[in-house]
Design brief:
The protein is of the alpha+beta class. The chain contains eight helices and twelve strands.
């Protein structure tokens, strides 16, 4: 069935949407050139357009307006500032994230993108923590055991990525810069996001010095000098259930704790089905905005 149909569109609407000032007669000519046979009718401002069966793409009046703009020539439409104040800008946190991604890649690390949801075991049991201590946001009706809670750390995602790529040549150097979610009763939604940077080094030797060097490089890029001076960063010996005793350090920058680095505990490594030593670093990058 090759039916023709007719649409009526006002010329002033086409002018307004495209941003031109053409007479209805000229617009009808432009549309006719686009295989939409048109003529001016009624009060001289309405255009009757015949849509042939060959133009299956014309569904709505806005498609006709687009055809008028194409026939007029996009490059011939006069540029002007919009009447509404809509000058966009990149979100500062995303800009910082993008800059860091480039330099992490330049440092020889490969970016991974992992799921924002994970199982309770991933963020608690496997890392030697209790689920209540993680402040994790729980999904009320999870479809699978893999997606029970929102992640509170990026580390399990990277370790699972390594477990899935054990055939790849060593060393494996991975990083991810993404959001984590924790409960926060002061927020209207009861939770808040933090932008974390996590990196892991997996090889025959733990490579703590490689992760430590990466931290120094990140701080150099963020213009944070070493030392306890105002605005500087230091690392202090610490303990964490996921880290090897005596091989863990807490990172303090700009007067606050931003994360930890160290060699992962053998229990954590075996729980993620890995067989080699692994060192990791995870920091919150929001204080550096």
């Amino acid at each position: 069935e090759l039916a023709y149909r007719k649409e009526i569109v006002r010329a002033d609407l086409i002018n307004k949407k495209v941003g031109i000032r053409e007479t209805p007669e000229n617009i009808a000519k432009l549309l006719t050139r686009m295989y939409l046979k048109s003529e001016v009718i009624g009060d001289g401002n309405q255009i009757e357009i015949e849509i042939p069966p060959t133009r299956a793409d014309v569904i709505h009046a806005c498609d006709i307006v687009e055809d008028a703009a194409i026939a007029y020539g996009y490059n011939n439409i006069q540029m002007m500032l919009p009447k509404t104040y809509t000058i966009a800008n990149q979100f500062p946190l995303n800009k910082l994230t993008e800059l860091l991604r480039h330099d992490m890649a330049a440092a020889g690390f490969t970016e991974a993108l992992t799921f924002a949801l994970c199982s309770q075991e991933d963020i608690a049991d496997k890392l030697g923590l209790d689920i209540s201590a993680t402040k994790a946001v729980h999904i009320s009706n999870p479809k699978t055991a893999e997606f029970q809670v929102a992640r509170t750390t990026l580390l399990p995602g990277l370790l699972k990525t390594i477990a899935a790529n054990r055939k790849m040549p060593l060393p494996l150097k991975l990083f991810e810069i993404s959001d984590i979610v924790v409960k926060d009763s002061s927020r209207d939604v009861g939770a808040r996001n933090y932008r974390h940077l996590c990196a892991v080094y997996y090889n025959k030797n733990p490579g703590f010095e490689i992760i430590h060097g990466l931290l120094d490089r990140i701080m150099q890029l963020l213009n944070v000098p070493p030392g306890e001076k105002k605005g500087g960063y230091v690392i202090k010996a610490s303990e964490g259930p996921a880290f090897f005793p005596g091989r863990c350090a807490e990172i303090f920058a700009r007067g606050q704790s931003i994360g930890k680095l160290g060699v992962l505990h053998p229990d954590v490594i075996t729980k993620f089905e890995l067989t080699m030593p692994c060192s990791s670093l995870e920091i919150n990058i929001e204080p550096f905005l």
